[in-house]
Amino acid sequence: MTEDDVNAQGARDDRAAGAGEELREHEVRTALLDLLAEVGTVTATEAASRLGYSSGLCSFHLRQLARHGYIEEAPHSGGRARPWRLRRRTAAAEGAAEEQFGDLARGLEDESWQRWLAQRDAAPAEWRHDEAFSAIAYLTPEEMSRVADVVRRALAPYQDREQRPLARPDGARPVALITRLFPLLPDTADDADQD
């Protein structure tokens, strides 16, 4: 069995492990990008060792990041190890890449939400509810930033549980926490009707 076979099996096992792993896709990819920014090049095995995930999961997400153009295979002297690095970009491409990654992240969030809605009845009884809500508030740009900071601070005590499984209380499961603060723009059709 080759490393690619092991990685492919690991990715299948990780995907089959259930919604818990699926909800962490964005976090795994972000951790991989951060690691690559820190160390320059990394193999799936090295990433797994540093981040605490399986090498199959890291291999799968490294290939997904490459498929979307965020990373590329780094030159290497042959062998079976596949080192990866951040894709070299110009400053203009950097802004576009951040926007594309944001789109990818939102797509994964939306996909996870749809999966939750479709499979909620299969969840253990105590997990069959969600805490989804939305609100509209009239804010200045500064107030919007302060609200975002309050949300970040409220979540901070739970952030280390991703990297430190022993910090998780019994019964804890991964939960998607999605906050989007953005100004509502007027509908152009409404603007035309007012003229």
Task: Provide a descriptive summary of the structure in words.
The chain is mainly α and 195 residues long. The chain folds into 2 domains: 3-128, Arc Repressor Mutant, subunit A (Orthogonal Bundle); 131-195, no CATH class. Helices cover 54% and strands 4% of the residues. The protein has 8 helices and 3 strands. It has helices spanning 3-16, 19-23, 25-39, 44-51, 55-67, 91-119, 141-155, 188-194, and strands at 41-42, 71-73, 84-86. It has a 3-stranded antiparallel beta sheet with strand order 1-3-2. Helix 1 (3-16) packs across helix 5 and helix 4 packs across helix 5. It is globular. The model is unreliable at 6-23 (pLDDT under 50).
DSSP strand count? 3
Number of domains: 2
Taking the alpha carbons of the first and last residues, their distance comes to 70 Å
Low-confidence regions: 6-23
Order of helices and strands: HHHEHHEEHHH
Features:
195 residues, mainly alpha, Arc Repressor Mutant, subunit A, 8 helices, 4% strand
Topology (SSEs and partners):
Blueprint: H1 3-16, H2 19-23, H3 25-39, E1 41-42, H4 44-51, H5 55-67, E2 71-73, E3 84-86, H6 91-119, H7 141-155, H8 188-194
Antiparallel strand pairs: 1-3, 2-3
Q: In short, what is this structure?
A:
With 195 residues, the chain is mostly helical. The protein is 54% helix and 4% strand.
